[in-house]
Each structure stands twice: as structure tokens, then as C-alpha cells.
Amino acid sequence: MSSMRGALATMAIASALLGGVANRADAQYVMPGAPPQYGVLQVRGGVAPDPTVADGVAGGPVSLSGANSSCRGYAQSAPSHVIMAQSGLRFLAIMVNSSFDSTLMVQTPDGQVYCNDDTDGLLPRVEISSPPGAIRVWVGAYSSSGGGPYRLGLSNNPGIRAQQLGPPGSGGGVVVTPPPGRPPVVGGITPGAPPLFGNTGVRQGFQPDPVVLTGSAGGPIDASMLDSSCRGWITPQPSHVVMAQSGFPNLRMLVSAGHDTTLVVQYPDGRIACNDDGAGSLNPLIEGPTGPGPIRVWVGSYSSGRAGPYTFGVTEYPHVGPGHLVGGGGGGVVVAPPPQPPPQPPRGEVTMVDLQPRIPVTLFGPGMSSATFAVWSPRGGPRIEIVVTPAGPSLSVSARVGGNEIALGTVPQEIARDAVVTVTQQPNSTLLVRAERPPDSRRSDPGAQMLLSVRWDARSAAPTLVDQWSGTFSDRAPRWAR
């Protein structure tokens, strides 16, 4: 199958970013602006050494055909890798070596999408030319229940083929690991990736108790790769993130489902706990003390290739069991957590992303494990950092220019809760800042959105807010934002 190309429209990407963070167990979308699961590869002038390789685990719940009809396979919403091209590339071959039928989707900085399935047997290969900037790569599995370890290769040599890269985990080339500061990839999981089915925050004495979330169990990763005590099949990304806003002497996490499910939990101190049938009737339960911080949760299916809905609960009460978790497949009303102020962005690691026309960059969102700043270079202006920071229960959007910080707008509390904030450089070099809270049908919440239009004012030598709009999630945006 030859390489195929198509334009990924701006609106499609915006929808993708939103769909990837919505608390839903059905359709999933790609999130081009999310941090890559398996790191960033730098290419300066040419690939050196050639080939350069990086390892990862393919597969996930996202059908790549939803991003472009020519694409095949299933992957995670976040890119597997990002290739930072410091200059334009006349020829770059991107290929995958794996023991299963794998696929590729590549998005170049100009928004073009290239897809491939079977160039070298069952191994995909994409050959591109590219302007400078971020090249995003998704490695997929052809089957929704397939996947496994793979090796990605980059080369400027048309004669280099996937079989020459060696198997995943072997030597050869340069193996690129994820950047420091994020939870490490362990046994194929990516703890720092955004959760697939939403997050929640709890502190001692939280009410209502239990807090309930829903999702779909199962994935391509064998949980026993993490620890021999673990069972079932999980996704690389967490199913949920439970933000413990205080320590707990005993916090219980359990699942209710109509099929055999398993649990994997990573506590804030890095400990991993697993369970299969602790809550009875094939339902798992994990309990124990924890300090404050993010608790990452994977809900697995005991059988490979099996997926199905579940209800996940968090409780302090020792008597709460699977039968108390209303919602999901059990009927009733899901008990929603009380509104929480937006989470504080992580301190320490900061990812700087140069904006490219029509390519959204996510600056703030649930489950993000590193701070992201967008770098805007308007016509006739300097490099400007666009930053989103908490301001009490609200969010502040600002620009940093030459050591000065200029306020551009404030995301109000009603949108800041569970908000996703993206920034896009439009073709006319203006900026579109989009803050959105997805709808929640369980609470009859229509969702909300706010849009800011920013341009560079040469007279004042500063970025200037020129337009602003807000509405519900489904309201039609003004023309200047389309």
C-alpha cells in the first residue's frame, strides 16, 4: 500500500483535542498538541546517526481513520513521538519494525497527514519532505485488539528498511527515551499521558462518597509486564487520574462491571499495586494509605482482546462495594464529584513548542504532567511565550515579551473547571486562544467555551487582544475563529 496524504483541517484538529479529554467511553480522537508518549527526536540538517531509532508500544482505542479516511489502525490519542526538524527536510523516511501488523500516521508542521500500512510486508513506511517544525507520529496496530512493542526508525537513506532497525529493545542507532521530569515509561505504560476517561480530585472527608467515573476496560498491554502479580490487559495511558489533595490513611478504589476486570494503580510515590478479584464477583479492589499527589489508575480486562464498560469508584468507607457504584452499565445516576478548582500546573519541567500555522498546541488540560508554553513569532515581532497559569479558581492567559508579562485574558471559573486551553496560530499570523469545558450529560451540563483573538501591534510593540467571545460548547463560533 503506497503512502497517502491529506490535509487535516483546523476544525478537525480542534475537535480532536477536545474529544481526547472529554470524559467519555465511546469515540476517541487524536490530540496533536498532547505530549508525545515516547519522547522527542531532534533532527538538525540530517538524521545522525542514520538510522536513529526509538522504541514504544503500539495500539490503543483511537481509530486513525477518524483523523483521515486514508489512515488505518488504532493508536493512542497522544502522538507516539514528535520529530523536531530544526531545518527543512528534502527527504525523510519514517518506518516501523514490529512482530505484528503495525500502521503509521504522520502529521507534518504544515498540517499535511501521511498514512501507510504495509509497504514492507506488514510493516509501514512513510517518506516525506517537510518544512521545519514539529513532525508528529502515531504508531498504530492494524487491529483494535492488537499491538505490542515496536521500533521506530528515521533515515535520510532510501535504502534503509524497517527490518534493518533490529527488534524493539535491541541495540543499534540511538534509542531515544522520554524526556526527564515525567513519570517514566514502565512495562509499556505511559503514566504521564492524559487519562482516557477523565480525572477527579479528592481530599480526606470528601463528599459525595463514593466518587464514580465510567470507562471502557481493556487494551494491548499485558499488565504482568509491570509486575508478576499484575493481571489483565490495559492501555498505555491511564484510564483515570485521581488527584489526592491530601494524604489518606486508607483510600479504596474498586470496579463494578459485567465482565472480568482488573486494576493497576500507581501511587504518587511510584509504587504500583495490582488486583484481580478483591471486591468479589470478578471485580477488583485496591486499598491502602497514600500521600498527596496524582494516583494513576488503569482498568484492565482479564482476557486479551476483550473490552467492555465499567464503573470505577473511589471511597473512604470500608463497607462500599461494587453494588454501591451506580451508573455505567448498572443504571441509576452517577455520583459526580463536587466542582474542584483547576489543578496547579506541574513545576519543574517546561515544554516549549514553536507554533506552526493551523496546528493547535494544548497549554492546559486535565492530566497534563508537564507545563507547556507556546512560542509565537508574529510577522514583524519578537518571539513571544504564550502561557496559561491558575489565578485562584480562574485561569490567566498571558504573553511574555522581553522579560515583561502582558495579560491577554481571564478564563472564568465556570469554564476553568476541567478546562482544556489550546492556542493556534492562524494563517494571518494572529492567535486564537480557545478555552473549553466539554459537556457532561450526566449533570445536564451543556459545557462552555471562550475564544480570544490576539494580534501583534507594531505601534505599541506588544500583543493586543482584538476580539473575545463566549458561549456553550455547541454554540457556533464567530467567523474570525473558524
UniProtKB/TrEMBL annotation:
Segment forming the signal sequence: 1-27
Name used for this protein in its record: Alpha-mannosidase
Keywords, comma-separated and alphabetical: Signal
Origin species: Sandaracinus amylolyticus
